[in-house]
Write a structure and sequence with these properties.
By secondary structure, this protein is of the alpha+beta class. It has five helices and six strands, in the order ααββββαααββ.
């Protein structure tokens, strides 16, 4: 009996990934007439060039403990009250000298929540409706971070080139 159960357990381990490899099931072949095209906005610059550019913008050297990298934040792109797409933004925060960067680092999950909420409360889309207004993003995000950490704790917010995904 033990051998039979052991054999079944091994078979389920080996065969279970194959059951999910085909993707999602169900659905139909009906079409709603709406198409979604993704614009990946490949800048041609590698990740090293983008990283160096951000460090230069912040005016700090590699490894400075005052620089805090945040995970991607999804910002809706809205124009004429219509959703045009999403911008995936990877911000870096520069903690002001004399502030406790460790405290900020330990509370980045709260900072992330504040930035996401601010991004959905305010329209951060530029006039074209196809990308973000970088100055507006910095302004809104610095205000949101100041509400949580206090005025002047975050000196600067640097934004990597956003990954824009438009709905066409």
């Amino acid at each position: 009996m033990k051998n039979l159960l052991l054999g079944l357990a091994l078979c389920s381990i080996v065969l279970s990934p194959a059951a999910f490899a085909g993707g999602g099931g169900g659905g139909g072949s009906g079409s709603s007439g709406t198409t979604i095209n993704f614009d990946w906005n490949d800048t041609g610059d590698g990740p090293d060039a983008a990283h160096n550019s951000i460090m230069e913008e912040l005016g700090v050297n590699e490894g400075d403990p005052r620089v805090i990298s945040m995970p991607a934040i999804v910002v809706p792109l809205v124009s004429d009250h219509r959703l045009r797409g999403y911008a995936y933004i990877h911000p870096r925060l520069l903690v002001a000298r004399g502030s406790q960067s460790r405290r900020v680092q330990d509370n980045t999950h709260f900072a992330l929540d504040r930035l996401i909420r601010a991004s959905h409360r305010e329209n951060l889309t530029d006039e074209s409706g196809e990308t973000i207004d970088r100055d507006r993003v910095r302004e809104v995000w610095l205000a949101a971070l100041a509400e949580y950490f206090g005025e002047g704790v975050i000196e600067q917010v640097s934004l990597a080139t956003p990954d824009i995904r438009l709905i066409r």
